[in-house]
Amino acid sequence: FWCRVYYISLEFYMGRTLQNTMVNLALENACDEAMYQLGLDMEELEDMEEDAGLGNGGLGRLAACFLDSMASLGLAAYGYGIRYEFGIFNQKIVNGWQVEEADDWLRYGNPWEKARPEYMRPVHFYGRTEHHPDGVKWVDTQVVLALPYDTPVPGYRNNVVNTMRLWSAKAPCEFNLKDFNVGGYIQAVLDRNLAENISRVLYPNDNFFEGKELRLKQEYFVVSATLQDIIRRFKVSKFGSREIARTDFSKLPDKVAIQLNDTHPAMAIPELMRVLVDEEKLSWEKAWDICVRTCAYTNHTVLPEALERWPVDLFAHLLPRHLEIVFEINRRHLENVAAKFPGDNDRLRRMSLIEEGGQKRINMAHLCIVGSHAVNGVAQIHSDILKATVFKDFYEMEPHKFQNKTNGITPRRWLVMCNPGLAEVIAERIGEDFIRDLDQLKGLRKYVNDEAFIRDVAKVKQENKLKFAMHLEQHYKVKINPNSMFDIQVKRIHEYKRQLLNCLHIITYYNRIKKEPNKQWTPRTIMIGGKAAPGYHTAKMIIRLITAIGEVVNNDPVVGDRLKVIFLENYRVTLAEKGIPAADLSEQISTAGTEASGTGNMKFMLNGALTIGTMDGANVEMAEEAGEDNLFIFGMRVDDVDELDKRGYHAEEYYNRLPELKQAIDQIAGGFFSPKQPDLFKEIVNMLMHHDRFKVFADYEDYIKCQEKVNALYKNPKEWTKKVIFNIAGCGKFSSDRTIAQYAREIWGMEPTLEKLPAPDDKP
């Protein structure tokens, strides 16, 4: 029973904590009332809290949803990560361009965290190894201290409180002083910053690997400190035994489950081996068995540029002992491969943890697969792609390791908290239990023709739209028509997510209105938001294109308020909580086979938007749950993309065949949207015409046709709302409670529970 889960992640995208805590503790009304009696406004107080932006996007927000679900399901779970002094940058739009500014979120302190200096741990870097008859020693290292900060994670009304422990880097007192105190005392104290830089800032790349030494230091820092904590806790736990401290590690896999959120904490595998073999003196075979049974790995992407491949020479310099261990893991692994597939040398090369070539690199995904007992993708289609392509060789060797765990979102934050109006009209029909057991939403299917329910759902949506429109007017001075369709695409800016396809629809719709200004067009407000990684030039140009299109469209008197284009500045958790409940249409338009799962798609569905999307990621399962007729599905499937790759994708064919596409591209290329700099967007056009990996033009025609269907249905509010109800009723599967229950049973060997613990003040 006392099995503990350690969810290790370099990102936890938590957002604000106050309202979520009040919801989970059932204190919201009491606090509102108390504030009111003090003559204060709760919403004003809530608005003073900074977002904890310790994540880039999906992967970091998933970790946050998982913490909520693990606590709500009564699992003894710890989230372990880094307490970045600066989280994801704040985005300003200046003259249409993204400008980054540092996110100094700790400026006024963080009331939710408690420093725990008594659990400080040393973390070692650099140095060299010495091989002795009695084992290996890692010596002459530089030491950085890891100082833990604990944040409580309350379950939903079950009196469970788990912990998120984030490590901060501290230089030891002796840092740089003993080695060269030639009177460089001041400099030595100033150099303490070098050690403490480890936890200074979150790397702002989403789905992109940048092989920097500081990033590898961060990855090892969190892993080393966390494993010391895990082993300390394992040794002092009683587990019904009378020993003061356990020295028998054979039971570790029964008591400890380590989940690696992507390959970022992959160093946990060689580090656990180092501790067991070098420090605890276990045999390699025994240690390896323990390691594999303890660790499990979640893959989050198939994009090759996102896979972590660390240069061997960087590794040798920073973590010499771990490199030796990785080489030994690889030697034994390749022996196993050769035994199973004799003479297949190409397979040995493909499956090696070390990639030969220009400079040797360590493939961290291969390390994770070999060193884990379970490997999972994050949506069915993604897990299938892993087995069929990226990890095919590994699947053929150990098929039992591969699983699927479709992502989910917590209904506490993403419905009850951000959309209380909708939560209430649902609860009036089916009770409040759905908040713990989201499958109960299917009980709404019988209300799909209920006039009163249809009216209530539509009314809540209209109120949310008015509220969001007011928010945008106050903060961004933009006036929007709340009776228009709110068409929203919010996610990190990336070529594979195809914000450019959205842009082509905007331009096409604009051109159609201009051509026939007296036709009855469905009015739309198209909102696109998201951050571009600071070094991702194309993504920054995409933002500039969106703002440029907005400048033209929004100031055209012929169009009026039938079409508006808004770039949502500084998209983050807190803005998502405001915007998603107001959305009518959710844009999920990645090239099939590129978005591993997506979770924003689920948030829109749960909050009463309809989805226009490709058969990619979890969209496939959303269509399955709600009925394919109740989503606007368009475009190539994975097979069609493969087929097109075989034939060869030629953008010019589409450009020459589709006059509206040609017109849109010619306008972008000719400076229609940038009259002062006519060739501002020539790189984007050149990319789309000559090297577009994500085949925007191939899906253009079907996308435009699909958007016409969206317009037609929106003109019939009752039929639209019926589809909305089918969507909400199909959301049960997409609760992170379901996801975590599956991890618990199928990977961690634990049983989740909805039992409520007695409150601390309850007398038994």
From TrEMBL:
EC code: 2.4.1.1
Entry keyword Secreted: no
Catalytic activity, as annotated: [(1->4)-alpha-D-glucosyl](n) + phosphate = [(1->4)-alpha-D-glucosyl](n-1) + alpha-D-glucose 1-phosphate
One GO term describing the cellular component: cytoplasm
Residue numbers carrying N6-(pyridoxal phosphate)lysine: 603
Alphabetized GO MF terms: glycogen phosphorylase activity; pyridoxal phosphate binding
GO biological process: glycogen catabolic process
PROSITE patterns: PHOSPHORYLASE (PS00102)
Function comment: Allosteric enzyme that catalyzes the rate-limiting step in glycogen catabolism, the phosphorolytic cleavage of glycogen to produce glucose-1-phosphate, and plays a central role in maintaining cellular and organismal glucose homeostasis.
Official protein name in the record: Alpha-1,4 glucan phosphorylase
Natural source organism: Lates calcarifer
